[in-house]
Amino acid sequence: MSVSRRTLLTAGATAAAFAAAGTSTPATAQTGGIDVHAHCIPNALIPVLKAHGAAHDIEVVESAGETRIRLGSLTTGPLDPRLSDLPARIATMNRTGIERQLVSPFIGLTAYHLPDAAARWYSRAHNETMAQTTRSAPHRFTPMATVPLQSAGAADELVYAVEQLGMAGVEVSTDAGPRDLDDVSVEPFWEAAENLQALILIHPSASARVQLPYRLGNFVGNPSDTTLAIARLMFGGVLDRHPHLRICLVHGGGFLPYQAGRLEHGFRVYGGEHIKTSPLELLRRLSYDTVLHSPGRVRTLIDLVGIDRVLLGTDYPFDMGDPDPQGTLAAIPGLRERDRLQIARKNAERLIRPRAASSPAPA
Ligand SMILES: [Zn+2]
Questions:
Q1: Where is the signal peptide (predicted)?
Q2: How many domains does the chain have?
Q3: Ligand 1 being an ion, which residues bring their Cβ within 5 A of it?
Q4: pLDDT digit string (tens) for 12-47?
Q5: What angle do CA 98, 347, 202 make, to 5 degrees?
Q6: What distance in angstroms lies between residue 359's CA and the mean position of ligand 1's atoms?
Q7: How far does Cα 182 stand from its chain's mean position?
Q8: What is the CATH number of the domain that holds 309?
């Protein structure tokens, strides 16, 4: 199941260069931001998939200078080279006032549509190579896991990732492949995540959506998916059953904050078989990133959910991300310096398990 150490060491030269770039003390240390929404494809993952992926119906497809990965019946688009360019990542972090990134998988690289055994193998390979990558500069990066959410092995993989690899938590898609997040089969995962106090980044994936024109799958489909996913967790009773889950929604929670009144009204008029706590109360238990491309709307979010529930994010390295996250914070109307620091780093420090944030994982 484990990725061979020899394969991991193949990426040693890159890791060494990465470590050299990452060990210089950034000007932002102590005051810089913690970016909770960034993506990374570990350099060592591609060699592992090339060497061992075929046995699990996984293929690295290289053509015309582009790399795609086929996971069962699904093939990603061309992988963005910025996802694996570690020196460029650190340079960008230094330039934009980011002291630490929580690095999550590229959401297109989940194993939710693979058969059970292959999905478990892929998730383990991804998590081990991600941990290896971030171990090169543990003061700049905190790794986030992926798990085979459609599999009974999801909870076990999360325990392994957090306890053995020192990961802070896990990124999950807005669906569990063929199942939804409130499906009873996902319940052991939520229970494990709550017990571990793991951070759960819920992130939309346009890959399974009906194709929409004009990039609307990204502009509208993604926040729509997030809104529907969290509403299912509310009305399906998951958030009531697990009140201590540490969930962060990307893109400012999609349309949820703007439509919170509608959900609340629906709850009051119709009630629900599973939901016990009001949506307005539940949404104040969640956290949200700042990737809204509107300082005014971040202000709206703060006013709704509270200053302690908003976290700095960038969606690095994508074009729909925030290229100037500290500038966004500075432009939020009525934000005091104390509030800015809370969003920039203190809220994230509270949510990241101390062991994962402060010490490297065992080799
Ligand atoms: Zn993202």
A1: 1-29
A2: 1
A3: 315
A4: 334 444 444 444 444 444 569 999 999 999 999 999
A5: 85
A6: 25
A7: 19
A8: 3.20.20.140
